[in-house]
Amino acid sequence: TAVTSGAGAMIHTFRHHVGLLCWASTAARLFNPTSGALAPNRTLHLAGSSTVRPLLEAWRGAPAVVEAYKEVVIEGGGSTGGARRVCLPPGDPEKVDVGAMSRDWNPQEAARLDDGYTMDCADTGVRVTQLMVGVDGLAVVVADGSSAHRCVAHPELGGMTLAMLRWAFSGWTDQQLMDDGIDLASVLKNDNNNSIKEWSDFHADCPRLPINTYGAGDQSGTHEFFGQVILCQSCFTEKPGYAREYFRECSRSQFTEHHGHMVHELEFMDANATHAYLAPGGGRTPNCYIPSERDEKVLEWILADGGAIGYLGFAYYQQASAVSVAIAADRTKGIMDTEEALVEDSAASITDGAYAVFRRELFLNVDNARWHLAADYLTYGFSDQGQKEVVTKAKSVRVNAAIRARMESRIREQGNRKADFVSVPPSSCPAGVGLKAEPFRNRWGTDKLNYTCEPCAPGRAKLTAEAAECESCLPGQFANASGALRCDFCEPGRVASQRGSPACTACGENTFAAAPGSSSCNNCSAGDVAAPRGQSKCDRCELGSYREEGTAGGCRRCPQGETTRFMSAQLAEDCVCAAGSYRSILGGGCRPCPEGMTCDAGSREDGFPSGPGVEASTSAVYPRVDSGYFTHYDGPLSVYKCIGAACPGGRPETCSAHARKLACGECDEGWVHTSKGECARCQDIFKTALLYPVLPLMFGPPVIYAMYRHSQDDVERWGQPLNGMASMFYLFLVTTQTVGASLMVGVDIPPGSPLPALQQLAQMSLNLDALLRPNCSLPSALLWRFTQRILLPVWLLLLFVFTWVVVRVSPCVTTMNLYVTLNVYGGVFNTFFISIASLMVGMFQCYQHPNGKYSVVDFPSLLCFEGEWIPMSAIAVCGLLLFCVLPIAFFVRIVWLIPTYFPNNKNFRLSIKFIVRKFTFDRAWWAIVLLLKGLWINLAKVFMTEATGQILWQVSGLLFYAVLTMQFMPWRHFVVSFVDVIAHSILTYFFTMQALFVRTSAGDRENVGAAAAGVLCVAFLVLAFGAGSLVRDHLRPARPSEVVLMANKLCQAFAHFAEQPERAAALLSLLPGNEKRTLWSAGLIIRRESSPEGLLLGSATVGDEVRLSRAGVSRWASAVHGEEARRQAADSRVPPSRAASDEGQAAEPPVGDVMEVVDGRSRHAKTTSV
């Protein structure tokens, strides 16, 4: 037991002296008072390990022992039995003087005292002295010549590894063994995967015979030693948390209780019965482990069982005819794969330690109170003769000379009376309580320690419940109270520089401790500051401030308008102009960055490179040109806006590949602008004159002639569906041109929008360069490009003239009618008027640069209002008057002449058919509206230089056009009118949405977005008002005056056509489908209501009060009710009230007064005022 206090030490010292007194009294009784010698009638009792027993019996027969003792009684019982019986108190009948053990003491059996060999029994306090009497090598044996022997002696095996032994003896499954690390594929080279462990599993040449295991019982130290070596030691000793591993047990029914222990039935069989039981087919259960406390029985069973393998002490193995199995200390692999050496059990291998795997020490433990009985026996055993008998008779391995000398000294000492308990600390101290060792000196003058548990002092801590000292807090940690479980880290900004600190101190100004648990404060670098005290980090000086090295206090601010390019600035020289401004070479502080440039912090005007190819200083920061903008080296701050992707930005005069001149608006020779504004190489086909002008000259006349052939129909065929399809196609072309003309400068449409694809298609319809790329085959000079665009209508007219002449002189085709040809030319001109107008006004469509100058949208390198623009604009004015204003005036004149010449002049009809055929006869003027709309769309870029204004300009025109279309429905086919309204409503929405993508600042973009939302709301309200007006006109009941007026006109119209049925038939053949259906519906209504059975009028009659002229009433009554109604009208008179007020007037009432119509089918009269 452990001594944990001074009182405990006194108690155990008292027990020790009581033992000495008992020993002294016994010795006094045994001594002869006359001779002083021991009486010869002494009896010595020994018991314990069967492994040590051969040695004990060898000494018992020695003459010196026989003379000294009346009897030496040697019993078995195993190491456990020997330990138990020697520790029994005096007077116990099972008490022995010496206990034999083939293992060391367990802590549960006895405590080892401070001399290392005196043991204090746990339960009785009996003290014994431990003597090492020999060394044993546990032998793994098989019967000589048996099947097992032939297997392990096979040339490819020659022995076994510890892994093979474990598999043979263990009660675990193969899976458990593999999980614990055994390579069964190496151990079992020939496993047949049955449930029986067989010798053939190790090798194919081994017999297919079960492996039967034998060994010591659980009371034997040999059993415990062997199990701990070959099995999982923690599992075999059943430590908590480990699965139990034991030898493969036989059925409990085969065991019988005998003297308190379970004994196998083989123990009670004679030799014949044993052989029969162990023979194949006998009663033996394959593979199970049969134990015995008697080694001779184990040996007997091994020799009787041909498949047996077991273990014995070296002494018994030496005396038997069994064969030792060589062992390799490999716990993982089989014998055929191991790299460990095979070692056989022999005296030499045990002595030199080669057979270390099963080597063990053998002990005799003498009760200190029985030394007077055991001394002579043990003295002989360690004599020269006794040590020889260890080898010759006991067949054991004796100890070496050094060990023998120590053992002889212990025999002479006959028990160490000064042996004291080892000062053992408590098994645990609570958390926060540490182990304290107090030195003291026992009664024999030996320095000892007394252990106590005390709360940890401040600055120290202990977390676990182990018996350990409190540990001092490391630097950077503290514990401010006693009994602390753990040391806390100092908070960031506070430090503890010493071990065992009870508290942390705060860092000073401009010093910091970043991490928890810091042991020292660090100084802030220049540009950083830490204030007030106790900071966990140094804050960097913000942008626009700095702190120099060694200065106290905080960061200093830069002058107004200046900042630093980085935080943690260290010098006043680090102050530069803030982002968005630059330092001018003219001085005066920092100036705002121009639009289209990005000024990083520290930008300077003198940092610009001087020219192309000249690199700026690596430290120079200058304003950078934004993408989409352009500047010159001689004026790097004068910014021009580019169109398209030709200006990547960066340095001045930077253009994309093969772009050049101002705003990167021109391409190199052999290159042409794409729709994205970049320059692309001209393909070989475009470099020739094949596409332009050869291709138009080749394919133009056939196309013109084909259009001519399909344009000879007269008015009687204009109402056919084919004409409606042509109108739809015309509307599509006009709409795409409208989209193309609405391309805005400074609008970035997102890729997911449907507008880019539509705009690209529309732009192709507007831009001849995109289709035929004449610049690849013709001179690319700006004036030439502009001139060919202006004269495009003339080239078109010349192409028509060329076609007319070719057809005229050709004998293969019919001569072209001049009036029809003029109609085809007019139709083409009218269809592409928006494109033509775009070409004419292009020179006046300028956009503004950030520097205040303007460039032509189509020619960004050409500046407006200066240089070449002035003469070119004069040419553009002429083109505008000739090809835009004059055609509109011409259309007005034609529309004015239509009522006069259209009915009777066929040539007139054929020449102006392109104006009339798409619309109803009374809406021919809608062609002028279309021209004005096209001109309005193109003038947006003339009068509005900003994208937002252009959008609002165009949206207003589209919105007004949509409302007019909804109001007048001018197209000859109703579906075309409906599609026209829908198309322009969609265009209004998309054009308004473009306002959200205008290149503006964030604040302006919000304003533009609000304006766009407002425009959409107005557009919605206007369209809703127009739609509501149409619905109202159809649903609102007409006023009486309108009814009568419409009735008179209707009667006159039908009466006129009733007299001329041929003219009515001709009219029906010429009317469009919707008008024809309208007229037919009107005729059906008149026909239905003219009969007395009409659905609406029925048998309606005229009341007494009529305020119409007699002629008017007569005509109305005759049409409704015949002669009787006429007679009633003739007899009508003016009421007295009215007569009084009309004295002096004519007898007949004026037209347009009051008439009462009574509906005979209604109970109530309905009066209509006229």
From TrEMBL:
The chain crosses the membrane at residues 689-708, 729-747, 790-810, 822-844, 869-902, 923-939, 951-968, 975-997, 1009-1031. Residues 532-575 form the Tyrosine-protein kinase ephrin type A/B receptor-like domain. This is Tyrosine-protein kinase ephrin type A/B receptor-like domain-containing protein. The keyword Lipoprotein does not apply. Residues 39-384 form the PBP domain. It comes from the Eukaryota. The keyword Membrane applies. Keywords: Membrane, Signal, Transmembrane, Transmembrane helix. Residues 1121-1130 have a biased composition (Basic and acidic residues). It holds the Pfam family PBP_like_2. InterPro entries: Growth_fac_rcpt_cys_sf, PBP_domain, Phosphate_ABC_transporter, Tyr-kin_ephrin_A/B_rcpt-like. Residues 1120-1170 are annotated as: Disordered.
